[in-house]
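Annotators were shown the component list below and the corresponding predicted structure, then asked to write short factual statements about the assembly.
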Amino acid sequence: MMFRGPDGDIRLFRDLNLEIRGGETVAILGASGSGKSTLLGLLAGLDVPSEGRVLLVGTDLTALDEDRRAMLRGRELGFVFQAFHLLSGFTALENVMLPLELAGERQAESRARAALDQVGLSQRTGHYPQQLSGGEQQRVAIARAFVTRPRVLLADEPTGNLDRNTGHRVQDLLFQLNALHGTTLVLVTHDPELARRCQRVLNLENGHLVAA
Amino acid sequence: MNTLRYGFRLLLRDWRAGELRLLATALVLAVTAITAVAWLADRVSLATETRAAELLGADRALVGNDPLPERFEALARVQGLAVARTLQFPSVVLTEERTQLVAVRAVDANYPLRGSLQVADHADGDAENTTATPARGEVWAEARLLIQLDIAVGDRIELGEEEFVVSRVLMLEPSLGGGFQNLAPRLLMHLDDVQATGLVQEASRVTYRLLVAGDNAAVNQWQTRVQPELDESIGLEAPGEGQPAVEQVLDAAKRFLGLSALLTVVVGGVAMLLTIRHYATRHLDRVAVMRCLGATERQIASMLTWKMVLLGLITAAVGSLLGYLVHLLMLSLLADLLPGLPAASWRPAAVGLLAAQVILLGFALPTILRLRRVPPLRVLRRDLGDQLFRGWGVYPVALGAIFMLMWWQAQDLLLALYVFAAVLGTLAVLALGAGLIILLLRRGRPAGASGLLLAGLVRRPWTNTFQIMALGLGLMALLLLSVVRQDLLNTWQDRVPDDAPNYFLINIQPEEADALQALLDDQGLDTRVYPMVRARLVGINDRDVRPSDYQEPRTRRLVAREFNLSWLEALPEDNHLVAGRWWGNAERPEPQFSVEVELAERLGVGVGDELHFDAGGQRYSAPVTSLREVQWDSFNVNFFVAASPGVLDAAPATYITSFHLPRDQQRLLAQVVREYPSVTLIDVSTILDTVRSIMAQGARVVELMALLTLLSGLVVLFAALQVTREERQFESALLRSLGGRRALIRRLAATEFLLLGGAAGLLAGGGAAVAGYVMGNLLFQLEYAFNPWLPVLGVLVGALVVAGAGLLATRRLYRITPMRLLKSAEEG
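Structure shown to annotators:
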């Protein structure tokens, strides 16, 4: 698989063949700079490889333009980021409503309230991100990720910015909701402990994926 | 998805985060400037349009300098039209102690046929509408006349050979005519009283009007019947055509103010260009997250466009409100010149709305819309998308928007092109100067601590060049309008010698001329009484002359009017020949004319051409044998066309003279007016004072506009500070963590701002001085010297204003701890 980097095409991954079945939970472990995030971006269709193909729920992402990929993402994918990526100036509720509204969902508000209730934040719906703790912010992000009932959830170091205790609680929540919704989970991390909670753990080393 | 709602939510968010303040301020200032002018212009033109008929006091009017033939009036009566007659002439009123030039209008009982007069019972009384006119033996006077004469309603005044009681105060009257009569206070009297005053005699300067009004069809029928019978000496006026001179001045003023408002837009645009990239950069992450969550390019573009449109609506509302207030302020400055304007309309608010959208469209939207191309991968890799705003692609759109606004404001493609080129040229010269200063500072920068003082300025050359340029433009406008204007006025006034004539006597009858000359001689006044013949130019060589032969409006009016001809024996001292020869001192030289050189150019005549004049039905012809240059502002009596002695002997003449009368000899005036009631006295110093006060009032309005431009210039400074804020924050924290004291850092910043303001002021002062020199010498033909103090003044004002504003804007930076500074600098 080739990937177009800032200085031209670079071959980041070699003979990379990965198939993830529906409902499976997979962790990709790797040191920083190993290309885990780039791989995640390719899986999400945030970028396309200059060589090779990515299929998401049966659709070839590499054959779609950016707008179609965006719509597909909105329909089938949920994201949880290390930096939370909540929109400042939007309340918790508005943040959770955003993907629903982008997809033109009419019941956006009631569904977003239900999702926040599931992560235990029904009392904090009107708060802005800066009024929430790190753990709370990540719970809002998790609610936002699940609210569209995606078939695949992609998580990038979801506890990387949290202290240990909070991190554990957020992990629990993530896996509980994943089990509840039967979502396929792909998790990228350098934390072996978090990785072990997944059914399958892969190591990314020198552009090769190897089972741990 | 409802992108409008999202646009609004994004806007609210940005507002709360304080990210829109500068953009909004620049926009509000621009809309304020544009709408203030629009409101002013709108109300002035509304006044001329909607009250055009009232201004005329009729549906149509015939105007002439001789009594109008009875048949036109008879014809109007046959058509069932209402008819009124008026007479207008300048004269002087007397009380025991004082004299005052007035514009007299004598009217019959039917006046006015359209509109009404406003009168009051005393000078401070409430105005009431009336269609009555003064009874016989009474006059109505404008309030300022009462003040000038120090009298009240009920007092008596002398007008010619009669005495009158001032019975009411005239607040508003359908007004007509241009020239100095507009400057003199008005006096309304009964038409039948004119005879007894002895003021109107043959060849007096009198304007006769026949007013008609009635239903449209009848008026038009009357006009079609009358028109073929009119010769050059009688004009037909319809509503809206009454005041060509005033209208032209207002029109020119409107365009000038409109274009100076655009200067604020240009400077505001620079602020926007500076700040918009920074603003857009802060939105990269947000848009990337939205893209990641499934937003399409279209959705993003639509949201962002709505956001800008809403911003435009809000700033237009605020700007229009401020513009309305500024226009009220302007009106209060112009109160004496523009009495009784109609209520404001909503049209200027719509103009503001449109302008705000065009400005945003031109300066902000192209950059903002680039955001829709943010790679969604940015959520994982922060460095992506930073290059999005590189390139010069946004500038042509901005320039295009500015040009469209100028074109629309000027209503004239050529003028718009000139102004556009001038603004771009000035900006380019300022930018070049700014770049040069920074380059010199960079080269000449000493090593060590004092070099550190200059570091800030040379390290950010592009931003600083931009800042100096924009601030310079604002400062230059202000200097031009305050210092240079005053300089030019002083230069002009210096040209008028102290003993220049301050009084004119006109309408002197031939039989009075010798006695009056003797009276003036007795008083030791050095003066001459000149004959004056009113004649119309009817032919040049073999062709007939008509106003329609000429393109230029001023020439047309000159040809349509009667010329004042005179005959001279010797060439006056303040005239000098530029072509041909003077007729010498022979008792009876060959018939010949000498023409003022500018008039000759306008008419297209030269030495050797034969001119034909008509005075009182007689034709007077002679060849042009010389062209003269005349120094008009000597205030001596001068003539466009002078004849050799003998040519005009048979023509009806009145006499004219001018003289300088010292203050302690003013009593002579009362004597002249009493002994020669038909002679009209014109007080030049009063007219000069009035002209000066009109200029001062107009200038204050323009200064107000310049102030808005300067405020825009300050917004540019703040915008530039915002752009460099993070860099400054980081540097300041770094210096402090390395042991730099707060005082040192503040001194560094103060030096930078002083230099920045000083550089902008230097360029502005230099630019204003050059512009003043060019205007003075080329435009006004004044010997105006380059004012070396302007750059000095510019440096001082610029340094103080910029340092004050700059330190105010950055004071927070020096208060917080280095740790917090470094942290917040990292977070952006």
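Statements collected:
1. Chain A has a mean pLDDT of 87.
2. Chain A touches chain B through 31 residues (CB under 8 Å).
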